[in-house]
Amino acid sequence: MATFTIEGKQFMYNGNPIRILSGAMHYFRIVPEYWKDRLLKLKACGFNTVETYVAWNMHEPKEGQYNFQGIADIEQFIQLAGEVGLHVIVRPSPYICAEWEFGGLPAWLLKDPSMQLRCYDQPYLSKIDAYFDELLPRLQPLLCTNGGPIIAMQIENEYGSYGNDKEYLAYVRQAMIKRGMDVLLFTSDGYDDANLQGGTLIPDVLATVNFGSRPEEAFDKLQEYQPDKPLVCMEYWNGWFDHWGDEHHVRGFDDVVDVLDRMLQMGASVNFYMFHGGTNFGFYNGANYLGKYEPTATSYDYHALLSESGDITDKYIAVRELISKYVDMTGLELPPPIRKKHYGNIRLTEKARLFESLDSLSAPITSKCTATMEQLDQDYGFILYSTQISGPRAKHKIVLQHVHDRALIFLDGVYQGVVERNTHDQTLEIKVNDILAEIPPEGATLSILVENMGRINYGYSLKDPKGITEGVRFERMFLYDWTIHTLPLDDLSRLNFGEQQADGSYTPTFYKGEFHVDEIGDMFLKLEGWTKGVAYLNGFNLGRYWEIGPQKTLYIPGPLLREGANEVIIFELHGTRDPVVTLQDFAELG
């Protein structure tokens, strides 16, 4: 058993003063085989603590069905941290932000359109209680009060940037306490008045602040509200994340070290966000919406101290040098770098067209109206809507009301164009051979393939159902009688692939190829000449790619490979002239 307490402006661990030097890394963004490597690199940098969020949607993907295996084995991650000599800060709030899909909330919450999020609303609170009943007993043996490494836990995340329901915050706090979470509890928020007034439970709960610069200003404001407690920067933003279409964010190490040094001179405790970002594998990237929908890229490199693939950076070296002035670094040696491999170009020789493979991927659902993914118990991936337009009809536009997030339109199987969420009117003229088309007397089949590009993870637009949210109009007339295929694309094993045949047409297609591995190591999948889609390696969803960047490669951790034959499947939405991918030994970001 151990104690982690506050005495005045000082943290105490087992009665001795301690300054927390922490780094954030998320177990769910790192393959489990690499957890220990990343934790050892954190410790070797002079840090004494690791911090992680807990992603509710990772642990309860379907309501009442829980997952704590593999990359979701949070208990093993925390135990490993303790074994290498690190304290642990856990942030198990129902909501985590984190640029993670829906801020960590499970998609099934949105099946009930009346569900109120992040407030004292009983239907929402009952879902939290059920989740906490499963999660928190797993964490209880790992608390420092029970001999484990967990020293502190967060009760909500940056709540002041969302709401001011103190009754809700108190409820979550009490829900943790009554389930045995008897370690230090805290909140974290931005440091302006609105955030600190809305998001804290001062004086009953320690308040911490998040920022990337101007530490004196931030801590001065915190002390206006909380003058008698330790100074803590719970998120020191030493880098930043990327949206698709952005430039890759870079922050120089000189600036990072300067701000850190100023905080340490003030006696503050610091948690780097991020120390190691990792990867938004699968469909777990989030998105922002502050007047414009902006999905986050697959890479969560964050320009952090460790790269996406866990490599030491110049920022790591500079921070380590500074920390050595405050911490005894004796015996803290760096683990060896992880091997990188280059296998060159791989030709994908087989393909399966989406429209010809629907029966292998999904059972059709008939519906009078369009329905969202959540209404059909789908969480991630794509959804296909099809209906008949009777003819003859004059030349008109198709109007999507509204699309979340990106739709490909087909008329009788012929690609017509893209409608994106940020398009102002969300309309598309139906054309044949670039001529605005009439619907012939026999009618035509309209098909709309919608991609969920990530639910919003921050701000006032958290309620973000996916698919076509209201309906589809042919000019002013709403269209009814739809056939819908849910396409989560979480199991491609039933696809029937055939040999490639060049026919010049572009339609959403799965491409498959194999390559042989003699020696396992990390690699990066480059998709030059491809447009947009999803990549799989031995059945594991590596994430999305998009030619607009900034990332040009997808990270392949070595443990996903196997000696001998390995399989690559690419789901390409728009087509490629040459189905070749490159497996190289370096990342390309920006």
UniProtKB/TrEMBL annotation:
<dbReference type="InterPro" id="IPR017853">
    <property type="entry name" value="GH"/>
</dbReference>
<dbReference type="GO" id="GO:0004565">
    <property type="term" value="F:beta-galactosidase activity"/>
</dbReference>
<dbReference type="InterPro" id="IPR008979">
    <property type="entry name" value="Galactose-bd-like_sf"/>
</dbReference>
<feature type="domain" description="Beta-galactosidase 1-like first all-beta">
    <location>
        <begin position="372"/>
        <end position="487"/>
    </location>
</feature>
<dbReference type="GO" id="GO:0005975">
    <property type="term" value="P:carbohydrate metabolic process"/>
</dbReference>
<dbReference type="InterPro" id="IPR026283">
    <property type="entry name" value="B-gal_1-like"/>
</dbReference>
<dbReference type="Pfam" id="PF21467">
    <property type="entry name" value="BetaGal_gal-bd"/>
</dbReference>
<dbReference type="InterPro" id="IPR019801">
    <property type="entry name" value="Glyco_hydro_35_CS"/>
</dbReference>
<dbReference type="InterPro" id="IPR031330">
    <property type="entry name" value="Gly_Hdrlase_35_cat"/>
</dbReference>
<feature type="domain" description="Beta-galactosidase galactose-binding">
    <location>
        <begin position="508"/>
        <end position="566"/>
    </location>
</feature>
<protein>
    <recommendedName>
        <fullName>Beta-galactosidase</fullName>
        <ecNumber>3.2.1.23</ecNumber>
    </recommendedName>
</protein>
<keyword id="KW-0326">Glycosidase</keyword>
<feature type="active site" description="Nucleophile">
    <location>
        <position position="235"/>
    </location>
</feature>
<feature type="domain" description="Glycoside hydrolase 35 catalytic">
    <location>
        <begin position="10"/>
        <end position="325"/>
    </location>
</feature>
<dbReference type="Pfam" id="PF21317">
    <property type="entry name" value="BetaGal_ABD_1"/>
</dbReference>
<keyword id="KW-0325">Glycoprotein</keyword>
<dbReference type="InterPro" id="IPR048913">
    <property type="entry name" value="BetaGal_gal-bd"/>
</dbReference>
<dbReference type="Pfam" id="PF01301">
    <property type="entry name" value="Glyco_hydro_35"/>
</dbReference>
<comment type="similarity">
    <text>Belongs to the glycosyl hydrolase 35 family.</text>
</comment>
<keyword id="KW-0732">Signal</keyword>
<feature type="active site" description="Proton donor">
    <location>
        <position position="158"/>
    </location>
</feature>
<keyword id="KW-0378">Hydrolase</keyword>
<dbReference type="InterPro" id="IPR001944">
    <property type="entry name" value="Glycoside_Hdrlase_35"/>
</dbReference>
<dbReference type="InterPro" id="IPR048912">
    <property type="entry name" value="BetaGal1-like_ABD1"/>
</dbReference>
